[in-house]
Amino acid sequence: MSIGMGCDPEFIFRDSSGEIIYANTILQQGDFGMDGHESTGELRPKYANDSLQLVANIHKLIKDGMKHAEISELEMLAGHYKLGSPIGGHIHLSGFNMDIPKLSRYLKLTMMTLSDCIDDLGEREERWHTGYGNPNLDIIDYRTKSTPNWVEFREPGSWLLSPQVAFINLWLAEATSYAYFDGIWTIFNDFEEDRKATISKKCDNLMKFAKKMISVPNQDIFLKVADKLFSKLPLNWDEDLKKYWL
Question: Which of 1, 65, 134, 137 has the smallest C-beta neighbourhood within 10 Å, fewest atoms?
Fold first, then answer.
C-alpha cells in the first residue's frame, strides 16, 4: 500500500511584546504563506509518501522561511487557539480506496485520543467554540474534492510545535489509514470505549495501536519518539516553535 500525504498546518506570529502580528502584513500566497484568515499563516509542504518525509518537507519550508528577516524576529505559535485566533493542522490523505466518512471517523477516534493526551484542552475548547472541530464523535470536519480517493481531515489543531509532535500526529493518521485499508477496524474500539479514561491509559492505547501496525513505515521511530514525548507531558504550547525546528 502507498499513501499520499499532505498537510497545511497553520500558525500565529507574535512579537516580543506579546502582541499578535497579522500574517497578511508579512506573507503573501505561497508554500510559506497566508491562510484564508488575515491573522493566520500556513505551510503547504510538498506531498510525501510517508509521514517522516512529510515532516522533512515541513522542516525545509520553515528553514527557508527564516531567510526573511522580519519572520525570523517573530515567534511562531502552534496549538488550537492563540491570541484570539483558531488555528488548525489539516491532514491530506490519498492514493487508496476509501469510504471517506468511515475513514474520517476512524481518524477522529485516533487523533482525538492523541489530542486528549498532548494538547492544551482549554485551547481546544476555544477552537471548538469558533466552529472548528467538534467534541461529538459523530460530527466530523473533513473535505473532499472531485479527485477520487482524497480527503482533507480538518479536526486537529496545529501540531507544528516541534518535529516530534508533528511526526506523531502525521504517523498516527498514516497508521489509521493502513488499519482502515487492511480492515483492522476493531482496533479502534479501545479509543471509543475509553473516551473518559485517564491520559496515561489513552497514551497506552496509542502505543498498543502503534505496536500492532508493523506494516506502517517508520513504526520503530514512532515508538521511540512517542514514548519519550508521553513521558514529558504536559507540553508547553506557548513556546516559539522555531526553537525546535531550526
Answer: 1
